[in-house]
Amino acid sequence: MGSTIGNNFVVTTFGESHGKNVGAVVDGCPALLELCEGDIQPQLDRRRPGQSDLSTPRDEKDKVRIVSGVENGLTLGTPICMLVDNEDQRPGDYKEMSNVPRPSHADFTYREKYGVMAASGGGRASARETIGRVVAGAVADKVLSTKFGVSITAWVSSVQNISMPDVDVKDISRELVDRTIVRCPDVDTARLMETRIAAVRDDGDSVGGIVTCVCQGVPAGWGEPIFDKLEASLARAMLSIPATKGFEIGSGFAGTLMRGSEHNDMYVQRKYGLGTLTNNSGGVQGGISNGEPIIFRVAFKPVATISLPQNTVDYDGKPVLFEAKGRHDPCVLPRAVPIVESMAAIVLANFI
Amino acid sequence: MGSTIGNNFVVTTFGESHGKNVGAVVDGCPALLELCEGDIQPQLDRRRPGQSDLSTPRDEKDKVRIVSGVENGLTLGTPICMLVDNEDQRPGDYKEMSNVPRPSHADFTYREKYGVMAASGGGRASARETIGRVVAGAVADKVLSTKFGVSITAWVSSVQNISMPDVDVKDISRELVDRTIVRCPDVDTARLMETRIAAVRDDGDSVGGIVTCVCQGVPAGWGEPIFDKLEASLARAMLSIPATKGFEIGSGFAGTLMRGSEHNDMYVQRKYGLGTLTNNSGGVQGGISNGEPIIFRVAFKPVATISLPQNTVDYDGKPVLFEAKGRHDPCVLPRAVPIVESMAAIVLANFI
Amino acid sequence: MGSTIGNNFVVTTFGESHGKNVGAVVDGCPALLELCEGDIQPQLDRRRPGQSDLSTPRDEKDKVRIVSGVENGLTLGTPICMLVDNEDQRPGDYKEMSNVPRPSHADFTYREKYGVMAASGGGRASARETIGRVVAGAVADKVLSTKFGVSITAWVSSVQNISMPDVDVKDISRELVDRTIVRCPDVDTARLMETRIAAVRDDGDSVGGIVTCVCQGVPAGWGEPIFDKLEASLARAMLSIPATKGFEIGSGFAGTLMRGSEHNDMYVQRKYGLGTLTNNSGGVQGGISNGEPIIFRVAFKPVATISLPQNTVDYDGKPVLFEAKGRHDPCVLPRAVPIVESMAAIVLANFI
Amino acid sequence: MGSTIGNNFVVTTFGESHGKNVGAVVDGCPALLELCEGDIQPQLDRRRPGQSDLSTPRDEKDKVRIVSGVENGLTLGTPICMLVDNEDQRPGDYKEMSNVPRPSHADFTYREKYGVMAASGGGRASARETIGRVVAGAVADKVLSTKFGVSITAWVSSVQNISMPDVDVKDISRELVDRTIVRCPDVDTARLMETRIAAVRDDGDSVGGIVTCVCQGVPAGWGEPIFDKLEASLARAMLSIPATKGFEIGSGFAGTLMRGSEHNDMYVQRKYGLGTLTNNSGGVQGGISNGEPIIFRVAFKPVATISLPQNTVDYDGKPVLFEAKGRHDPCVLPRAVPIVESMAAIVLANFI
User: Fold this and answer.
1) Contact C80, C35 (CB under 8 A)
2) Phi, psi of C113 (to 5 degrees)
3) Does the CB of A190 have a partner CB in chain B at under 8 Å?
4) A122 CA to chain B: closest CA distance, Å?
5) Which domain does B157 fall in, by range?
6) Band (A118; pLDDT cuts 50, 70, 90)
7) What's the CATH number where B118 sits?
8) Distance CA C122, CA C29 (A)
9) Is C38 exposed, middle or buried (0-12, 13-18, 19+ CB in 10 A)?
10) At residue B160, does pLDDT exceed 50?
């Protein structure tokens, strides 16, 4: 009952890792927007597994089809349903683990909640679920960029303890981010990250990190106090992404180390109106956008699936030495970048 | 349009800082629950200003009245409306600042959104709004503790760079937390925090910090993937609290420094069923509670209202040296503790 | 869990027949609208019991207080909470009937659902619940009339088998409707209705009838296919009013007797754009307003509370001869008129 | 933004008359329910065009595919997406009418709302939209019948002025209803209806009528006062079906002719608990089911598309003699039967 998000730009996603299709329905997209598969495919390609030898070799074409809501290249104002096929299904991979709840996976909790054992690679708790987010996010992105000039860019700012230096968000772009396969716009840091990921992969282990995202061009006035504040909606959207453990906006946790006199953002006169000299607020005050860039960071835990053997117990409580077989990424961060952008776009499109 | 949260346990709050009443309506509370003002007042008292010389001297009795939904001490299953009077109104305090958007306050964004200047102390962006959260949260808390044995306790774990040592959550209780006025259960740390807050207050400045919260006794199976995952709902609820800048659950941002083999929580057999040896997951896997304690942390920025003069501009862009007059806390953390507990309770009660 | 309606103009009502207060919270009202109690009281007075000897002698002042969301006579864009006191409480009236579910009342179903016996006059199933609808509806009405020139007028078109002749909706107004105490704008028919109601009252019995409502000035384009079509939303709102059994829009049930060639509304050129020659559609096509007057009719059953003795059984199944004691109307239709208008306003305000 | 209904059993539909697919996503279906295409296809076949020479000759196979939410014949508790192909697309049929808003169709209102002309047979305002309702309703039906023994049966009770005699609802079944192509369980009345429909068809005209529906086995206690009362939810669902103009439950509009003493349903002791002697309430009191059969009636207007020429104007206000070309039913009632059942099932499943 939690597969729908938004009340103006309404997104419903569906699909398991090993069913016939994954996808999304977008309701509330304005009519007469130019939209075709070509607007959606690029983000899907960025999310796709198998982009480099740093990610899972599971190979999916992941081609999106728009099956409703668009006619002659224009949206109709009606629900847009988008489908992606699941082609490379190997349920066999997961058969033998079926009596062991994989550590830090959702097998146990899904069984507790639904009474269904994850017979097929995590079901709805699989990363493949995020395809629905990305196709819907691409539509939101198109609306935001076309109608408001909003641009959303995310990047990998940390992998484990390797962090990139501060960056001027004005310089950032998806093109810049995509220059490195790890999607860190600082090339030197990117090299270190790649080396770390490769080393961890060779160890049969995994790493996490942090994705930073900036939304530029959002006009002042978006967000609905008090429960649908902009930062609250972003936090919910980000923490709904698999493997996330934290969210911070503007100064975030580091801001708790400052005094008010350091933290407060002074107003200054800009060409277009009032702006702020610093942006510790992260573009949001009182839950409403203030016209400054919206900047937030999302923590991703290390991937739960590792090749290393793990001492755990099966559903009957019997100790087992568990060794995962399925395909998996040593680090999801590079592929998480378009997912974070997509969820940000879905949140913002709902406040238009 | 964002004053309602939840779809099963539905909370709607209302009230400005200087209107006649603040309060909340709770719809979806089970019938036949024992409930009276005495169940709600204690949390309200913990939130109340003027509890010590570390907080604002604004004096409000803040007595709650239940005006519907309860008869003869029992809930009816119908909406419970609770009211608190605003007694100590001094709109005069705020008059002179009306042409200056207070730095890092919501004056500017509210004016951009609603076209209304904050003539009266922040309106709905005032901390007084949180009364509605606390009275509704107290009802949720009663439901959770009575029907499920769930207990929720929050405390101040950091003030600026003063942090308390790790604590065994099993030992924590509201009584323990309330032993110090700063609501830090470690007495030695509490003393340091109090000294810091007093010093900052004397400087006319402010500080922020971190509130940690643990929810114990939550059964496995709560949470609604994929957009209403338990952690997503908690993140949204916490980031909707005024002055919050970050949320993390379980290992949080620190978890990004670990490898998967360190981070994964191994299953173990417990008396009541499966548990986990570590709790980096923070009690949630795949968006669903796993029966372990739910632990999360919330970052609060330093209070925006400070007595120190600030170089900013007015709405016309003219430079001004702004000096705040109104009453304010040098640190909201101690009073934020019951608010964090209340929002956690509201979120959990919605998943029952 | 069903006390909130709307997602843009969001209304939450609360209050039992015999608690301290009844009222409503309106979230989503635009800021800077002139609003005071004087805008709300008139509709409340039209709903009030004791207006004539045709209605219940229960005497309530029913004075509304706005306690939030309005400052200096202007709305703030924040939730507007409105309260009405319950002054004339006589729970004693209802004590003795407590082991008998009153026929065609909600005593039995409330007990089945909530496990609570209706100890006090129907609780939330009492007509007093409708006060929340009326105060919220008055706010919606103000928004609609001020910002869009929309006018909504309802009247009693039938009492039992006494029906008024067709009327040109352009001539209708609340003033005209209020010329007769039975709120039928045709004076001759009104006299017959009054005589019938008085006769039925003297018999200790009750009657029902039909309220017709017209909404004029609604621009083309309101309504959200496919589940929130305008007529679907109106139908839901009307059938949520106590004692209603039917809803029809435009030609309604009588339209089923016509052929398509008679029923279709031909387009004609009007000064302001396209209109229709006839209005069998009732102002709505495909769930969206077409600019013509929106006309619908609501069936109210005869009041369930009658003085005549009734052969029924108690909760244990034991036959009893039940005689109602409480105060009651022989016909709710005249007082239902502002309630129908209010719900129509709430529905329309949500589509702005 | 109105393509989703329900908050527990959540249905989202999508698809235009001439896009690639129509379908629905059902979120909130319990896990471990046996479900396959064979459970859904029968209702789809009953809705299908071309069942007899009384309906449109448009030929669609209308085969449903379940593409998510089901594995090995069992539901997973995750969203169930169902697709039906649009095979027989002839947009050419509609080209020439593009500058004329078809009388009593949604062409004009869709253009006013979305700015898009109905280039393709009504778009989302086409009867083909109802496929999404039927496939979702079939899932709801399976849940209700399997888990609660609820049975829902609708039938054509009137075509224009031809009405069938009263029927004992206990005797009714879908098998009985399907004995006649017009779906009227009284064979003699059915013959008259068929003759009438054939005559009207030959005239190039159309007729409407009434569908009656009974839901049996619904336990007492379903429905959520005050805005999500059972009858309010049914009314909304029914009035969201294309071509509907009215809804009545129990005694309905006829009940307004009775006195309270005739209309009240006396309680009687039944084997399983309290029942009522009569059922003027239609199985609902105070918005909550009382355990008696839920009976309601839905008015369908005569089909707007007729072959007879119509004197109307085009979008520029120029008079035209409009003659429809597309394919159409002279009477939608027989095909509306499964749609009414489906919407009833969707409403009831949401209250489980």
Assistant:
1) yes
2) -80, -50
3) no
4) 9
5) 4-350
6) very low
7) 3.60.150.10
8) 31
9) exposed
10) yes
